[in-house]
Design a protein that fits this description.
With 186 residues, the protein is mainly β. Helices cover 12% and strands 40% of the residues. The chain contains two helices and eleven strands. Strands 3, 5, 6, 8, 9 and 11 form a six-stranded mixed β-sheet that branches. The chain is elongated.
């Protein structure tokens, strides 16, 4: 009836039946099917008690409280479980990611990610709450044996690493925090 699409019908009730399915489709396209379970798991009610406390502030918005490292020794090709604990003081503007580098004499592998398996970007996280960010990193096959230092920080494309404050294990000038070590065994 309106081939030139000159009449807006969005507010006259004509599109009422399409709004719900369209919003559902948008949500389904943006979030994985298990997002509710991931978020419930990632948002503890009480202050976390990490096995390895590490305090570092990323601006005024995010504080690293510590990490639970999985097995201290793994083989190349195996998975390593980590849980990062954050206090979210305010939301971070933009698409900041957690970067995780496993470094041995300048050779490294990484586990960069968005918290909660991509379900909880810092821009949408809870302001004034806690985050338990569970992560699994596969050690690349062929990774050389030895002790690797684990560094983490926040990174954003075009902005680089977020400055770190109050970090006892700060890696001077690189805006990353030393959180521990793992050993890759033959």
């Amino acid at each position: 009836r309106d081939p030139g699409e000159t009449r807006d019908v969005a507010d006259d009730g004509t599109c009422d039946g399409l709004r719900g399915p369209l919003l559902g489709w948008i949500d389904a396209a943006q979030y994985p099917p298990d997002v509710a379970a991931r978020l419930a798991d990632a948002l503890p009610q009480d202050r976390p008690r990490p096995r390895q406390p590490v305090t570092a502030d990323f601006g005024d918005e995010v504080r690293l409280l510590g990490v639970d490292l999985g097995a201290p020794r793994v083989r190349a090709g195996e998975e390593l479980a980590l849980t990062w604990y954050f206090e979210s003081r305010r939301r971070l503007d933009g698409d900041w990611k957690v970067f995780v580098h496993f470094d041995r004499a300048g050779r490294f592998f990484q586990g960069d990610h968005v918290p909660a398996g991509g379900a909880l970007p810092f821009a949408r996280g809870p302001a004034g709450g806690f985050v338990a960010d569970r992560q699994t990193v596969r050690v690349p096959p062929g990774t050389a044996p030895g002790e690797y230092t684990i560094y983490m920080g926040l990174w954003r494309s075009g902005k680089g690493n977020k400055p770190v404050r109050n970090a006892g294990a700060h890696d001077g000038g690189q805006n990353r925090v030393r959180v521990g070590t793992i050993e890759i065994v033959p």
